[in-house]
């Protein structure tokens, strides 16, 4: 099953047929959940984003039926709902796999290896951007920066982080996902399917035992600036993972290490600072003639 690139609900210049309704039992269940979401907000239309995650959790993507449902519950037009669905890339508009594998190909990740990872995954999986493997397990996508640049290049699976990846570690990751192995992200809770992830994003509790405790916090590389600001000394050394490290091994805390490494990455903190280089002190630039 390689999905086509045509998107549901789009027909230029042609009147659309009404979206098919949910079966009664599904509608009743979704409506109860939807009312619970709406009650969290002083203004009902503020509930649109979590409601869209709710309908995405039902079908794996946001169908026209789901959009119609959200519009009815929130007293919005379907055009208003569609405008939001088409704006945010976290909402899918066509059927996809259980695991959305997003490779960050924004500038930093791209130059650190993200472009190579994406190209090799395309070849390895036999799919292009936005396409799904024949077993329905993996949808491969370019993703934009997810603010994890200090762990570049980053791969995300259902929005969980896999840091410091290489082409080889990324290929092992997708193989494990397709084989149904127990795959743990570098940081964050263990993986669940895209539908289950969507339900959590709709604001319902993650009921998997231990999942909340596993979520952890920021990785060590992200905390270096905070540590320096608190007066702690800079790291004694900076790791340069590209110097002499075999490229077929995942770097610090990558996919197959369930306990994130305490090692710092090569881009954590500068070694040469104004404190260590008196010839170039920090401070406001001097005016001409001062
Ligand atoms: S550029 Fe990839 S996470 Fe920021």
Automatic annotation (TrEMBL):
PROSITE patterns: COMPLEX1_24K. It comes from Streptomyces pseudovenezuelae. The lineage of its organism: Bacteria, Bacillati, Actinomycetota, Actinomycetes, Kitasatosporales. InterPro entries: NuoE-like, NuoE_dom, NuoE_N, Thioredoxin-like_sf. It comes from the Bacteria. Residues 278-290 have a biased composition (Low complexity). Its cofactor is [2Fe-2S] cluster. Belongs to the complex I 24 kDa subunit family. Keywords: 2Fe-2S, Iron, Iron-sulfur, Metal-binding. This is NADH-quinone oxidoreductase subunit E. Residues 245-255 have a biased composition (Basic and acidic residues). The keyword Zinc-finger does not apply. Residues 232-290 are annotated as: Disordered.
């Amino acid at each position: 099953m390689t999905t086509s690139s045509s998107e549901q609900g789009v027909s230029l210049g042609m009147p659309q047929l009404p979206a098919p309704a949910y079966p009664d039992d599904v509608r009743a269940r979704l409506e109860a959940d939807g009312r619970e979401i709406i009650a969290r907000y002083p203004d009902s239309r503020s509930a649109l984003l979590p409601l869209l995650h709710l309908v995405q959790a039902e079908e794996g993507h946001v169908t026209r039926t789901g959009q119609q449902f959200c519009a009815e519950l929130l007293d919005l037009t379907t055009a208003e709902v569609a405008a939001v669905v088409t704006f945010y890339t976290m909402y899918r508009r066509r059927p996809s796999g259980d695991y959305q594998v997003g490779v960050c190909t924004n500038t930093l990740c791209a130059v650190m290896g993200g472009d190579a990872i994406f190209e090799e995954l395309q070849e390895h999986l036999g799919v292009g951007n936005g396409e799904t493997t024949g077993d329905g397990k993996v949808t491969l996508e370019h993703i934009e920066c997810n603010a994890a640049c200090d762990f570049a290049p980053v791969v995300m699976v259902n929005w969980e982080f896999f840091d410091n990846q290489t082409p080889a570690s990324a290929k092992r990751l997708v193989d494990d996902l397709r084989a149904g192995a127990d795959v743990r992200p570098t940081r964050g809770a263990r993986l669940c399917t895209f539908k289950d992830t969507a339900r959590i994003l709709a604001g319902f509790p993650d009921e998997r035992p231990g999942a909340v405790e596993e979520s952890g916090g920021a990785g060590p590389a992200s905390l270096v600036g905070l540590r320096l600001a608190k007066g702690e000394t800079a790291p004694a050394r900076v790791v340069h993972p590209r110097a002499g490290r075999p490229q077929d091994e995942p770097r610090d805390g990558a996919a197959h290490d369930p306990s994130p490494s305490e090692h710092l990455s090569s881009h954590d903190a500068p070694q040469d600072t104004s404190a260590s280089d008196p010839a170039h002190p920090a401070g406001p630039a001097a005016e001409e003639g001062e």
